[in-house]
Amino acid sequence: MEIKSLKKADTIFDSYVELALCAESSVFHWIYLRDNCTCTECFHDATVQRTLDTFDELPWKVCRQSYSAEAPKEAEFEIREGKLRVRWPDEHVSEFSEDWLRRHSYQPPLSTKPKALSLPAKSHWDRAEFNKLLGDGAHFCTRYDNLPSELPTVLREIYEFGFTFVRNVPVSIEATKTVSELISIIRPTHYDTGVWEFTSDLAKHDTAYTTVGISMHTDGNYWHELPGLQLFHLLEHSGGEGGETQIVDVAKVVDQLRELAAQDESWRTTYKVLTEHPLAFHQSGELDSVFYQADYPTLTLDATGELEQCRWNTSDRISQAPLAPGSPYTVPQVYQALFRLDSLIKDEKNYVQFKMQPGTIFIFDNWRVLHARTSFTGCRRLCGSYLTRDDFLARFRSIVFDREAIKDEIYQ
To answer: Which domain holds residue 29?
Structure first.
């Protein structure tokens, strides 16, 4: 590693040092290096939080009246013992190893995303792949008594496949609560503040509290904070039949949509409508609460095109017309896109159907896996919970990756 050039510009934002890292060069701005000093004066070792207020404590100031930066004062740069050493105008010293510089390079980036931040790849499935997974004897086999020791497997299955089962669970709300709290934090809602239990008594004014069939949907589309995970445990179904569960992997449906869009202009429009056009949802059954939001598209994708979140429940949709002012889409295009999505969701090659049994808990990713219920007769009692997504992912990361390795990747 060597210093190739130094540029002291007119502002702190434009001054930089150019380094030769192995056979490549990379530019680091002075403000970036000072902001990311990882010494114990600038970062709290125990909490791994910044203690330096970059925007208020540095010797280089930005005029709060004109919002213009002062010309930078001198800083001394040198390579010492294999590290870039910088003495700043306030005499503070920062040191950066070559490994740190490569991992945090940005102009150009010389490294991929830190391994400790990269979660495993997800596996998308249709009916055939679901049946293969269920029948291979290697997945979804965790028993209640073994859950604490096999929690890494359960969390990984939820993340990778969007669902899992926990078997041989005592048929009780208490055991359901135990499973819920091992996976994440129970999210309170207007339905219940903890584990909820319901049957077809309209105790809440929602079709889930009836015997009618419910089509494929995600829960909570009328909330800005869509429930991350959902957990079902059938407590009883006696004196009747029906009530089977249907699920579909929307990540697989997105794969199919992308393939169709690559071949046909009309499907390209459908893909854009589903990923750009916001739908409005509501929940107005309760006398003391009305929920409404209209800010999100049906499908939200991440930067790689992977499904991040699906919002779909035809029962809770609000009128799609008039469209938002300036919308590039027409009412016919919106309805065609929704019909096409619904057709793929209900394609027999994509969805699966099974009957839940007392003692088996079904956990699924509410951002990815749609669920439905066929109509039923008799007494059917179900309990379950909503679980927070961020806490699930935090627990998953802490199990998959060593915490010290994460700290090293991010800060050291």
So the answer is: 2-111
Residue type, 401: F
pLDDT at 148: 95
* Residue 198: predicted pLDDT: 82
Task: Please state the length of the chain.
Answer: 412
Strands 379-387 and 229-238: antiparallel
Among the three residues 92, 111, 130, which one is the final residue of a domain in this structure? 111
Amino acid at 348: E
**Cis? peptide before 322, omega within 30° of 0:** yes
What total of structural domains would you count in the chain? 2
- The CATH number of the domain holding residue 176 is 3.60.130.10
Nearest one of 225, 231, 123 to 182, comparing CA atoms: 231
**127-397-41 Cα angle (round to 5):** 160
Locate 92 and state its tokens.
């503070």
Question: Measured in whole angstroms, how far is the alpha carbon of residue 325 from the centre of its chain?
Answer: 30
Tell whether 271 and 382 lie within a shared domain: yes
Is the CB of residue 246 less than 8 Å from the CB of residue 371?
yes
- Residue 149 DSSP label: H
Give the confidence band of 211 by pLDDT, cuts at 50, 70, 90: confident
